[in-house]
Amino acid sequence: NAGVTQTPKFRVLKTGQSMTLLCAQDMNHEYMYWYRQDPGMGLRLIHYSVGEGTTAKGEVPDGYNVSRLKKQNFLLGLESAAPSQTSVYFCASSYSVSGANVLTFGAGSRLTVL
Amino acid sequence: AQKVTQAQTEISVVEKEDVTLDCVYETRDTTYYLFWYKQPPSGELVFLIRRNSFDEQNEISGRYSWNFQKSTSSFNFTITASQVVDSAVYFCALSAASNTGKLIFGQGTTLQVKP
């Protein structure tokens, strides 16, 4: 049982380049989330999805886009990477229990933008 | 607005000492959930506990215990007889009942347990 899988685990980009982070879950969870983790700031929600074909903005959505074409996948895109997007990105998923959701996290993807 | 504050940035203890990690939260919701997650050096996030706002009973799980006090909006985490394997970053988080599971995280507390 793989749980939540993120690819790639590491990536180095130059300013202005684009890339996509892929998150895949095999638990048939309805909800999926993208967070970023920065030193001293905890984890902040970028975007989330409450089901296939839906997406919504979180706390820090600027500079990112997302898509959820299939229930098991949630993609995070950076169209024009900036050094401020250097961070560790975590994907998470949960089943549909209102507010009490326990999130299962992926292992993280470390992105460096030069 | 919801907010979680973990005022302790870093804590260092010697093995077998007890240590308490503080968590203070702010919310206007009457129904909400509080969580603790552990992030060991390997980087993954591990769920430790969930508490709902109507249950103020303290909870104990082995060497771990949690003290939830609505009167002070706190949800503190105590490790008894700490071990080197407890070295990690610990996050406290808050979710409103109607919030589709979105977690608001504190800044995290880095715990170092020295042998």
Verbal overview:
The complex is a heterodimer of chains A (114) and B (115). Chain A has strands spanning 4-7, 10-13, 19-25, 31-38, 42-49, 56-57, 65-67, 73-78, 87-94, 104-105, 109-113. Chain A is mainly beta. In chain A, a hairpin with a 5-residue loop joins strand 7 (65-67) and strand 8 (73-78). The relative contact order of chain A is 0.33. By secondary structure, chain B is an all-beta fold.
State the main characteristics:
heterodimer; A: 114 residues; mainly beta; 7-stranded mixed β-sheet; 4-stranded antiparallel β-sheet; 0% helix; globular; B: 115 residues; 6-stranded mixed β-sheet
Q: Helix proportion of residues of chain B, in percent?
A: under 10%
Q: Count all strands of chain A and give the number.
A: 11
The share of residues in extended strands of chain A comes to over 45%
Sequence of secondary-structure elements of chain B:
EEEEEEEEEEEE
The share of residues in extended strands of chain B comes to: over 45%
Structural class of chain A: mainly beta
What would you call the structural class of chain B?
mainly beta
> How many strand segments of chain B?
12
Which ranges of chain A are low-confidence, i.e. pLDDT below 50, for 5 or more consecutive residues?
Answer: none
Poorly predicted runs of 5 or more residues of chain B:
none
Radius of gyration of chain A: 13 Å
Count of helical regions of chain A: 0
Tell me the overall shape of chain A: globular
Let me know the largest β-sheet of chain A: 7 strands, mixed
Task: Please give a quick description of this structure.
Chain A is an all-beta fold and 114 residues long. Chain A has strands spanning 4-7, 10-13, 19-25, 31-38, 42-49, 56-57, 65-67, 73-78, 87-94, 104-105, 109-113. Chain A has no helices and eleven strands.
